Description:
The structure is a homodimer. Chain A is an alpha/beta fold.
Amino acid sequence: MSTESLLERRVKVLGGRSPLFYDKPLQLVRGEGVWLYDVDGKRYLDAYNNVPHVGHCHPRVVEALSRQARTLNTHTRYLDETVVSYAERLLSTFRPSLARVFFTCTGSESNELAMRIARECTGNMGVISTAFAYHGNTAAVAQISSVFTPAEQRGPFVRNVPVMDPYRERNGRSDEELAGAYAQDVQRAVEDFARHGVGLAAVLFCTAFSSEGLPVVPRGYLAKVADIAHAAGGLLIADEVQAGFGRFGSHMWGHDLHEALPDIVTLGKPMGNGHPLAGVVTTADLMERFSERNMYFNTFGGNAVSSAAGLAVLDVLQDERLLENARRTGDYVIAGLERLKDKHALIGDVRGRGLFFAVELVKDRASKEPAGAETKRVVNAMRERGVLLSRIGRGDNILKIRPPMPFNVEHADLLITTLDGVMSELSRRS
Amino acid sequence: MSTESLLERRVKVLGGRSPLFYDKPLQLVRGEGVWLYDVDGKRYLDAYNNVPHVGHCHPRVVEALSRQARTLNTHTRYLDETVVSYAERLLSTFRPSLARVFFTCTGSESNELAMRIARECTGNMGVISTAFAYHGNTAAVAQISSVFTPAEQRGPFVRNVPVMDPYRERNGRSDEELAGAYAQDVQRAVEDFARHGVGLAAVLFCTAFSSEGLPVVPRGYLAKVADIAHAAGGLLIADEVQAGFGRFGSHMWGHDLHEALPDIVTLGKPMGNGHPLAGVVTTADLMERFSERNMYFNTFGGNAVSSAAGLAVLDVLQDERLLENARRTGDYVIAGLERLKDKHALIGDVRGRGLFFAVELVKDRASKEPAGAETKRVVNAMRERGVLLSRIGRGDNILKIRPPMPFNVEHADLLITTLDGVMSELSRRS
């Protein structure tokens, strides 16, 4: 089966607009750890995928999944120890007030439910997200997902705050000044809602600000946002689909890194290492108030197989010390990327923490004009050289590097060396 | 671990309102075919669950799932033969115009996407569902799910048509007359929308009318509804989460049984035999028009493991001739239930087709007053005697019998005998 004929078959069933990565789509047949293999046997270093969080096809997760699938797979309307044990284990990684969990299947379902809870419990409708956010694909969540939804489709109950961009906007200000200035944007959105008679239900942010380009969030910012939300009668929803499960190395959850206590936390992608498992963590009080008037049941959410997979992910994270690895490898990658920045003028900024990195490419370090076309060339050239990554940001000019958690310093060397080669060739050609 | 202490632990993490079946919750530890086993080793005949469609823990599905989980599990932005083969195989079971599929993870996501497509492609907002419908748990889908959503929360873009109840409403009318009368309800809803300046996006019905109590749908009804929807500029969305994948034995899809051609079909529960897999099937034209302006991507939807599970379900359905089994066993069960009706005055009506049955309990066969409390007692007594079923309908008075597809005549004998015993005891006691 050639890639060309598979592409033709694909268009006939999934349509011509079902998204595919890369100018030349990549046909994969096998995955293991941080490695992926294409149909020709070529090996790729995966420096992009966060869904296979503890590594592609991790044997312990596969074994847990297979064993449970052989034994029992029912929904949560039967009493089942697996889901209870998993819920206890998961909640033990959160601060004590975040003591209850709803299980869902996808990050979209989680953000949907979080918005339903916030609107029900506050009695308000307004939700604030950023001006370049992605939180999912349902109608309600698409309204706050400004990255794909034109402003005229966002309706009266959504306000977007400008994307923070300290790389361009710091202007010598301290973290405290910057945090205050960005928090003012949230305050202004609350006030604009009020002028239109709309109360605040929630501020909903990705704690990595991933689609926004992984900005270095000024210290204290998210705690200020929580205060503003609460003062307006609303809640803070932390979308941990990107930052969660130890991605940043130093903390299990992005909101802990930012020293902010959310009222609701949404979980997704990495949670089941590829198995469709997601969830909403909240307080006992909010769950109770929501559930008094709303029956929430999710047929597949928290089923025995999903719970077994989720539990195995937590086991592997702990037993293989993957947060520690993320910190160590992360520092090493940042140092390597900084060396590349010294060497290649195209690199305007290097950001990151744990195993999540942004390399911002600019046409000129003074103007900081986004180098979108060059970034696309780098992404495709990296794929040709066997390293998978992608790009983010309003200018599509930020390399997104977010490998599975077992990514180590040897893998980091291959990433840095390959990126060095690609950027050298790019500068020779231009 | 006693059931009591597990219940206590469960409340502390999932809350006190997370739904559980039965007065005395059932703690399950193992499943196989149509059998489930509780923590004390007691065996239960599963006459309720449609998610384990080809049987609990079917070895071929488990093997397909495990093999693919060991090999590769990535999303559809890489080119992958598994998802293409599965899509081809799935679409081959539909009529030719239904030629494209979006993969999702849950029935809720499928109905969400179907409504987004209908609203985008018609330019209208109005959706018609029935007055006792359940289509899912997202905000938009909850609005049309009248069973759990109070009328005041359904908003300006939803109209509900009365639940059809030919058992009470036939009044000697022919199928054609009855189909015409019920279709008039849909026409009236369209006209009410029009009076309020709302155009019709879609009529969205479960093709089993499952929550509504599995009425015997008069021949020709759904085709008339399709005509009304199209004449109003709207679409027909067939929710096949309950009826699909051969549940009715005679046809793979409920809309084929009803001889109606929908524009969009939504799939869910039985699709992956418990694995979170769902989808939206539609025409090439609707997919294209929707996708021109909307980027739909679902991280877990159609991933390699989900596709392998879905493919195995289709293989087993075919190789084990499970539609044929559903027809044969179904006729046998109906005959048995009719005998019980002759014997027990509490049974007002017996309905069903393939492996989906409704046994409507009434206080009096003349008044047909729903016997909700008695139905609840039957459900709990059946559980005590080792047979699992549930109840549906506006009066909660309809036994819902919907076993996995390998349910055979021996299982049927056990179901009928047990139900006979429970109903005899109930009448002795009352």
